[in-house]
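Teaching note: in complex prediction, the entire set of molecules is handled at once rather than each chain in isolation. The prompt given to students was simply: 'Predict the structure of this complex.' The entities are:
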Amino acid sequence: MADHESHDKIYLRVFGALCVFTLLSAIADLFKEASPGVVGVVVLAIAVAKAACVMLFFMHLKWERGWKYVLLAPTTILAIGLPIALMPDIGWNYYHKVPTETMIEAEHHNSSAAAGDQDH
Amino acid sequence: MGLKMANSKLCLWLFLGTEIMFFSALIGTYIVLRLSSVDVDGDRAWPSNEITHIVTIAGAINTFVLIGSSWLVVKAHEEIARGQFKEGLRDLLLVFACAVLFLGIKGYEYQGKWTRDILPGRISETRLQAVEKAVRQIGAVAALDAEALGGEPARKDLVAQYTQLETLLRQEKLTLAATEDRVVSLTKHESYGPLIESHVMMARIYHDRTRDEAGNLVSLDQEHHAAYYIPYGNLFASCYFTITGFHAIHVIVGMIIFFFPIKKGLMGGLEEADAQYVENAGLYWHFVDLVWIFLFPLIYIVQF
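The expected output is the structure of the full assembly:
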């Protein structure tokens, strides 16, 4: 019975912590115009903390045995690896500025002008 | 030999492993696409929350709803395991109610996007597309019968205006500003004005964003212009509806899973052995909560 009561208290504390974390995220949202980068890092860090709370206590991973590492490590590696694998193809090249005809013409014009200067 | 855990729980965890990869593929793709959405200067050009009708407070309330329901599930599991079936049933019913509330709030958000036509494949991404869409929508209203448009003279007037706009568009003489002016004047027509207001997206956005408290039109600034054509708007809508849609489907599946012990409890048949089922259902439900924990900041708050 005492064990059950202690679990109940833990769950209630975790629920309270999750509420506070969510409130902090909502408050951070008010400052996103002023410093979007900082707010982005803060809210994602809060999300990681919340996820850790849910997984450790609500999903009982804190009390589970070693199988949790065998099961979760490959999925975590794949989950992190996917965006990294996509980034070079899509994130870094596809939509980024590519030389347009106008830019190429301007470059050609500049190089011609430079060659002309050298001739003189 | 073997793991000291129920087979059903092991299966559930293996299933959750596949679910982690499924959602990380969706979320990872969203992050990469969002990071790569830049303008001609290489600056970030993902549409802002205001333009895409993202309501942060709605997302925050839904986060509270889901974490509350997660807490109720673990409580219900403990209660059923120790034979407190009445309390367990009460908490399971509350979890079900939380799921309904979550979907209701999501529905409100979807409705906001639906009425503003923020849907995949329907968003104008350039000035020309915005003009073409407005003219097309005016044409759709002009194609209605005379009775709907308030009489034959009104219909003829609207058809004439539409024909003129279409001609100007074909001649590439119709600017966005001129289209905006024409739309505003059409909305003031006493018979078909309300139809233009409700059918032409530009008029609806005018109504939303460009009137003061007294209902008068206010001057248009860049932000308001940006509302008529949303660069990367279709990409946003595709990502938003795919990710939140799949999450909502998981919420519905969770409701189906919880329906069975609730039904059993209402018929007075809950027993301590059902704690295992509730634990497994709870693991699934916590995962649904976990996904939302990341979706909330990534979709509603972060501006990278």
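Point out the following to students. The mean pLDDT of chain B is 89. Chain B touches chain A through 52 residues (CB under 8 Å).
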